[in-house]
Amino acid sequence: MKTSHSFDERFEFRGKAKTWSLVMIAIGLIGIAWGFLSGSGERTFSNLLLMGYYITCVSICGVFFCAVQYVAQAGWSASILRIPQAFAGVLPKAAVILLVIICAGLYFTHPGLNVDGKQTILPYLYKEWSLKGVTTPGDPNYNDIIAGKSGFLNIPFFLIRLVTYLACYSGLGWLLVKYSNNEDELGGMLNYNKSFKVSVIFLVIFGFTIPLFAFDTIMSLEAHWFSTMFGWYNFAALWVSGMATITLTLIYLKENGRIRWVTEDHLHNMGQLIFGFSIFWTYLWFAQFLLTWYANIPEEAAYFYKRWEPEFKPWFWLNIIINFATPLLVLMSRDSKRMITVLKTACVILICGHWLDYWQMIMPGTIGPQSSFFGLGGSKSSFLFGIGPLEIAIFIGFAGLFMFMMLTALSKFKSLAPKKHPLLEESLHHHI
Amino acid sequence: MSSTKYILGLFDDPDEMMHGIDELQKNSIPIYDVYTPMPIHGIERKLGIKESRLGYAAFMFGCLGGTTIFSMAYYMLVHDWPMNIGGKPAFAIPDFVPITFEWTVLFTAFGMTATFFYATHLFPGRTPRVMDLRATDDRFVIAIDAKGNIPHEDITNLLKKAGAVEVKHNDRKYVSYE
User: Fold this and answer.
1) What does the alpha-carbon distance between residue A275 and residue A348 come to, in Å, rounded to a whole number?
2) pLDDT tens-digit series, residues A361-420
3) Is A242 exposed, middle or buried (0-12, 13-18, 19+ CB in 10 A)?
4) Residue ranges of domains in chain A
5) What's the rounded Cα separation, in Å, for the pair B153 and B34?
6) Alpha carbon of B125: minimum distance to chain A alpha carbons (Å)
């Protein structure tokens, strides 16, 4: 079997994909503007944080995917590595966007009620621990528990931590991409071995810091509450949603006549990983839930109590149904993983499902119950409670932004496969 | 009338064996089975072997395990001897989930092993059915049912030409019983 693929074709980012991504960005911008102008600043900020976090996580997943493949010395994935590498290329930009959102959220304030129900001035994000006077005894905003946590949870250290994590992930991702590009020029084992080393370093750093990244960015929104499962639970969501995005990108490129060397066997592997890690996600979700439910300690149960309010309960259950039952029922059989349409549908559902997952983590503890169509009335008891045009517009906007940045990064590669990767032949003959 | 029951073509290289399969198929000689010391990618498709049904067995065993333990736990903790544990209701489904999961996995694993043993006639203490002992070591063996596939010399020549290091005409199906 001789391979006759031309790896020199470049991906050109133009035409429909570009138009659509720009349209999606425009929808997002309109959504953001509408959110701020209609006086729902906090809700808009929470949504921006959600999507900023989401695209950062998906980009981190690209670096993580590459690193895992190098460390495992996996051959099957060699020919698809350009796609996660493009994700890694997006990471610095996504990180900056996330940091800008967080800084703005900490800087801008609005009048509101503190945890004791007193009128005060609150920042838009992380209000539980970042509002003025929360650590000063005697201040009306003073909170004993938060003051006790302020050694870790204070604005300068918080920002230093976030910048450090994101700089590490981005830098190591950038190195992996650089080595892979050098490999295309030079061939040989040198760059592969270097990538292996960088991947090992990345995985060690990633393993220790990704739970902290989740604690800082999302869990500290409800700073009175904590869960040691939270970090790994977020990691599972990152990994599943990231791989669903990688798979969608593969399918998109394949359907457009690119990357012809990617066969249903590669997609089957991706499907298996998505399936397996969706079960892992469920395992962690349930572990966190079961322990809290069983122990029933008020300070822990408060978290789920909020999510069991009638406004959130349908979404709470929908979350577990979408993210567990979809992969379980749809992706379990071999055939469905090998059918592009089925796999594509499952990926889209999971990407939306993990958006709902993040939404569940952020909204009940920050903005609380909201009606879907703010400013337009809307029934508070309806099933569609809480998720309205604003949420959808911002989701679409960031999805378009990610698509735009990722396809731009992909078009910068000189070839759509690392053509001198030592394990490329194995990948081209991948069979399962 | 020859007493040969099976003709075995022994190869020392998997690629040459694959080539041998191609040659036999080109000449419309049906292959009884192929034995290799290691898994070879793509060989099932080439031989037209039906997809394994082990997955269905696994699913059934999983369902059986889950149902068994859920019923047991229900009988013990809800029906027969309900206890007040931390003020939780007797029928506390979240508590049942871990054990149900564990038993599902346990039954699936044991059930699949048993099914595999049954389907391949393997069992500890039982003599395995092997057509050529070196197929478990360093030879890639193509077996052809000798009955109806004549002349045998043609098959021998074909296998030799495809790169077989040895061609055996066996009077018994399984050598391992000897």
Assistant:
1) 14
2) 999 888 877 776 654 444 444 445 678 888 999 999 999 999 999 999 999 998 899 989
3) buried
4) 28-425
5) 20
6) 33
Query: pLDDT tens across B137-147, in order?
Result: 889 999 988 88
Question: Which of these, A13, A15, A27, A82, lies nearest to A399 by C-alpha position?
Answer: A27
Q: Do B88 and A294 touch (CB under 8 A)?
A: yes
Interface of B with A in 23-62 (CB under 8 A): 41-42, 51, 55
Question: Which residues neighbour B97 within 8 Å (Cβ) at sequence distance 6 or greater?
Answer: A286, A290
In whole angstroms, what is the distance from residue A324 CA to residue A350 CA?
Answer: 9
**Residue A418 one-letter amino acid:** P
Instruction: Tell me whether 0.85 is exceeded by the ipTM.
Output: no
E strand residue ranges, A32-118: 109-113
Per DSSP, the three-state class of A188 is coil
Q: What is the pTM of this model?
A: 0.88
Domains delineated in chain B: 6-51+127-170 (3.30.70), 54-120 (no CATH)
Backbone torsions φ then ψ of A309, nearest 5 degrees? -65, 150
Looking at chain B, list the stretches that DSSP marks H as alpha helix, in order from N- to C-terminal side: 14-26, 43-47, 54-74, 93-120, 152-162
Place of tokens 């996600």: A281
Q: How far is the C-alpha of B108 from the C-alpha of A180, rounded, in Å?
A: 42
With CB atoms and an 8 Å threshold, state whether B95 touches A334.
no
Contacts of A293 in chain B (CB under 8 A): 94
Q: What 3-state DSSP class applies to B144? A: strand
Q: Which residues contact A188 (CB under 8 A, 6 or more apart)?
A: A420
pLDDT tens digits, B88-145:
889 988 889 999 999 999 999 999 999 989 888 888 888 888 888 888 888 999 998 8
Q: Least CB-CB distance to B94: which of A293, A334, A431?
A: A293
With H, G, I as helix, E, B as strand and everything else as coil, classify residue B178: coil
Spatial distance between the Cα atoms of A38 and A175, rounded to a whole number of angstroms: 44
Cα(A48)–Cα(A28) distance, rounded to whole angstroms? Answer: 10
**Count of CB contacts below 8 A, A vs B?**
20
Q: What is the dihedral of CA A150, A155, A156, A162, to 10 degrees?
A: 110
The tokens for A67 are 């690193």
Q: Which of B18, B19, B41 to mutate to test the interface with A (most CBs of A within 10 A)?
A: B41
Rounded to whole angstroms, the Cα distance separating B31 from B49 reads 11
